Amino acid sequence: MKTNFKVVVLVICISFFSISSFATNTVETPIIEDVTVINAQKNTVKGVYKGHDASGYVFSIVDEYGSESKMVFEKVDDAVLKANDLESKSLIGETFEITFEKTMAEQLDSSGEVVSQEIKTIKGLKASR
User: Could you tell me the residue range of the domain that residue 48 belongs to?
Assistant: First the structure.
């Protein structure tokens, strides 16, 4: 019984290593090399929804000094999209408490250089006043 188990494990290992030796990566296609979480804790801000465009979901944020700035979220969790129809114009102008996470993605561009991009993902969205 132990011999059969060892033979099966050996066959699986040999198959894995022989198949993985055929895998190749080309520089011509951008490949995500590494994704590292910048801040493991979720961040929360309050903002007014301005709509979405090709870059993502846009909110107007006012900081503690009264300065207004635009914050774009590239991704939104599926559960948040199901609960809030951010694709419609009906939520434009509404104020939300936004819980989000930042990640840093590094990928190769067409010339082989590493390019870093910060990606903000909405994890929670709660109507606010």
Answer: 25-127
